[in-house]
């Protein structure tokens, strides 16, 4: 039996307006044609994209950052990450963030995958990189950027996930991906 | 040697204003006091929270949905998920979404963890649940909701992650978590 073709649920843009332009966030509101001919409103964030870096001083450990995240109102332990500057290659963003925030350059870079962290209300895509062959050269944090860098064993970091001490989704995902690589499965 | 106390990078709210109130999105702009005494602006989404459900007809497979996500402009294969209604218990949201979207009720529920998907620009928290002992009772989609439900083996779903066919972050994270459970590691 031939598999059924997947259904087409495409929503088509009828109109689009910027409804908020902030320093960080840009919100659009579109009217769309639904698959059944009806219309609906879609509000979403336009995002420049971002990178996440699994940076490993050795195959069993990762660099992590601890910083305060105001929207949630507490400190988080995270993998290094950052927004892509306009026109910047994601690879360049990853190198820049690793050096600026953690103070490391990497001899080996590998692009692992493209992720979509927030498909309900943002167009954001995130490029996940693996950085190895690390060399410490010293950080150069942006003004107003406050964070601590730590090296954590992959095993301990995954324990922190189970305990709920690490709850940032990109970091949980990145650590589980790193474990698949460490085990030679991915 | 005593471990060093973690640094306090807390940012304190000086003022807060709603800058956009849409049907779906609420954006706030706050002025904050930085750890070094300076000030900065923080824009973020106020979100009611959400749930993700790993629903397993058997220990080696999961229910997934295929739907169009307008902000990114294409179809995605996802774990069942949904926003928490005002005043609703996350457990109730999970039961509701599993029945409405997939047409299943579950005899066993387990809360796995609390995640923060978007700490750079949203206060959203996501509760991750495991649902087993499933019984099909028929879906009842909201009007204007279009999706296909499928049962996929965990192994195949993880292959789709590596191939990039699954790129929704919550789904990648949920599948990797489900594999840890299937292996008896978590």
Describe this structure in words.
The structure is a homodimer of 186-residue chains. Chain A is α+β, with helices and mostly antiparallel strands and 186 residues long. Chain A folds into two domains: 12-46; 50-182, Nucleoside Triphosphate Pyrophosphohydrolase, CATH 3.90.79. Helices cover 20% and strands 42% of the residues of chain A. Chain A has three helices and ten strands. Chain A has helices spanning 90-102, 154-163, 169-182; strands at residues 12-21, 26-33, 39-46, 50-55, 61-69, 74-78, 81-83, 104-115, 126-136, 148-153. In chain A, strands 7-4-9-8 form a four-stranded mixed beta sheet, with helices on both faces. The first copy, chain A, has a three-stranded antiparallel beta sheet with strand order 1-2-3, with no helix packed on it. In chain A, helix 2 crosses helix 3 (169-182). The longest helix of chain A has 14 residues, at 169-182. The mean pLDDT of chain A is 95. Chains A and B meet through strand 2, strand 3, strand 5, strand 6 and strand 8 of A and strand 2, strand 3, strand 5, strand 6 and strand 8 of B.
Produce a short descriptive summary.
Two copies of one chain form a homodimer. Chain A has 186 residues and is α+β, with helices and mostly antiparallel strands. Chain A is 20% helix and 42% strand.
